[in-house]
Design a protein that fits this description.
This protein has 9 helices and 19 strands. The protein is α+β, with helices and mostly antiparallel strands and about 375 residues long. The longest helix has 22 residues. It is elongated.
């Protein structure tokens, strides 16, 4: 993987050169991991000095971090307890007198005012520029190794969900079911949950990002579950809705079929060159036509990777088009206040038609099961 990380840093270096910055300081954790292979708490990556440097407040392994660092990176452990890796990077750049480093590109949206001020104080002659979303744009299209990690994360999430469905659910609380799912994720090899697991029953079902409560599962309830696994830093998402203990009521069948049709329409729209807003438009259009325009989520889906919510965004105002090898979620839902609702959520990878179209990573059945 060393050559992969080196190539990523080289692409970022080319961007900095093109924008007039002789060096770059990356401090956002997901971006540090993308460039270095690990992201210990408080770490930063410095590009553009005599060599690329990973600066860490503590020795690697002290925090139990996951991942393996790129061995071609120079490791610089800060000497003073509590020292700031970003400030130390600026000091290092100045002390080594890096050629051409008259400007340092930083991730301004990840720096506090105090941290920005400290950088200016230790390197008063070094102009600070905004790196913006340069690393995030590099992260957008995944290589096959990254997609493999997402595929494994999806398999873990599917396995945890399928095991839960085989257990007795009536009488158990939303909170208890969420905790059990997260334990099962770890049991099957995940680093942990990709995000707080959502379990909603009865009137809570179908709610976006519902936080589990002590409400108990009852006969006839809709049960909505949304969970994800993190594997080697890469995060996936799967969401399903079921009926508990009895044949679904007519209104439950009707609502489920509408959401399923919307989700299928969105999945079928995923293709290289498709406008991001069109995925949302097609999905939302199915729900609008069925009379569920009120209370829909602000967007249909989003990208996933080292973060569970990253570009591209699939919403009404989304800009840009999809590329091949971009993983996204398609997750429409409808919630009827006081009654409940349906959410169906998959993680897919955009692929051209010649390669079989979008690759579905989360394969738990979307049939409306009565558990």
């Amino acid at each position: 993987m060393s050559e992969v990380y080196a190539a990523r840093r080289e692409r970022l270096r080319d961007h900095c050169t093109a924008t007039g910055s002789g060096a770059a300081l990356v401090s956002r954790p997901a971006n540090v991991r993308y460039l270095a292979g690990v992201a210990p708490s408080g770490a930063a990556v410095l590009l553009g000095g005599k060599e690329d440097v990973l600066l860490c407040p503590e020795a690697l392994g002290a925090q139990g971090e996951t991942g393996r660092p790129d061995e071609s990176l120079r490791l610089h452990v800060l000497a003073a307890p509590g020292a700031d890796s970003a400030v130390a990077a600026a000091e290092l750049l100045v002390s080594e007198g890096a050629d051409g480093a008259r400007s340092l590109a930083v991730e301004e949206d990840h720096l506090t005012v105090a941290r920005h001020r400290a950088l200016s104080q230790v390197a008063p002659r070094l102009g600070l520029a905004d790196l913006g979303g340069a690393v995030e744009r590099l992260r957008l299209v995944k290589d096959e190794e990254e997609i493999s990690c997402l595929r494994i994360a999806a398999e873990i999430a599917d396995q945890a969900l399928s095991e839960l469905l085989e257990s007795i659910l009536v009488g158990r609380t939303e909170r208890h079911l969420a905790l059990e799912l997260e334990r099962r994720l770890v049991d099957h090899g995940a680093e942990g949950a990709a995000f707080p697991t959502s379990v909603g029953t009865g009137p809570h079902s179908g709610m976006l990002a519902h936080r589990p409560t002590d409400r108990r599962v009852e006969e006839g309830d809709f049960l909505s579950v949304c969970l994800g696994a993190s594997y080697r830093g890469y995060r996936c998402e799967v969401g399903r809705t079921f009926v508990i203990g009895t044949s679904p009521a007519d209104w439950q069948i009707e609502l489920y079929e509408v959401v399923f049709a919307a989700q299928r329409a969105g999945r079928e729209t995923l293709a290289p060159g498709a406008a991001c807003r069109d995925v949302d438009r097609v999905t939302r259009g199915v729900l609008d036509s069925a009379g569920y325009a009120e209370g829909l989520a602000p967007r249909t889906g989003h990208g996933v990777g080292l973060e569970i919510d990253e570009d591209p965004r699939l919403g009404p105002a989304a800009m840009g088009k999809l590329d091949a090898c971009v993983p996204v979620t398609v997750e429409p839902g409808v919630h009827l206040p006081g009654r409940g609702g349906v959410r169906i959520d998959d993680t897919l990878v955009v692929r051209p038609e010649a390669d079989g179209g979008p690759e579905l990573l989360t394969i738990t059945t979307k049939e409306l099961l009565a558990l």
